[in-house]
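Practice record 12: protein with adenosine-5'-triphosphate.
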Amino acid sequence: MITLALAKGRIFEETVPLLAAAGIEPAEDPEKSRKLILGTNRESLRLILVRAADVPTYVQYGAADLGVAGRDLLAEHGGQGLYQPLDLGIACCRMVVAAPEDFDYNAAVRQGARLRVATKYVGTAREHFAAKGVHVDLIHLYGSMELAPLVGLADAIVDLVDTGNTLRANRLRVVEEIMPVSSRLIVNPASLKLQREAIAPIIEAFRKASHG
Ligand code: ATP
Ligand code: PRP
């Protein structure tokens, strides 16, 4: 049995067409079922549903053989114990530093101010600001980072932006780019070694589906 770890929502929805191109169909719709293990039309392939940030952990420990995870979460995880053969080109967005429209971020940085930055991506943010020599106190949040500067919790945030609608709606703007983000196929190296005959064709099917 081969196990593929996916997160409900965006990752699941954007992975389904790639699976379909390989002739793989989930037996159930995760939005309608409370099950965390879903069968597929292939007897030897099952899907497990985990939180997006937990996908790398399941694959690292071999509880899942494969998974789909955003580059944002892989950067935060560190990527140890993971083979990353493919950028799937799905769930595309950017990781940025954003601040209130009326906050002069560049001036604050030039003056060497110590900034409070709220984010879910503490490790990535720490590296980014250290590389730029910007002094920051990081505040770890689990979501809705855009709120933090509006209520005085932080001067700036590190978050994902796609259309920019969430930033605009909260009178924030991008002040620095950190990295482009898309989701990757990740594979447990031991699984690949021991079950190459089953896993290599799945990787190839994802490669074909994601590269047209
Ligand atoms: P959870 O719901 O468990 O807190 P999450 O909010 O990180 O997790 P999603 O919002 O489904 O889960 O995001 C999953 C992945 O999709 C992210 O890790 C990121 O790579 C990508 N992503 C997040 N927001 C966007 C967006 N607005 N547009 C495109 N891709 C996005
Ligand atoms: C993500 C991200 C931003 C928003 C950016 O949140 O955390 O808040 O999308 O997208 P935009 O630039 O197109 O507005 P998401 O919609 O996934 O909500 P959640 O993480 O709180 O579930």
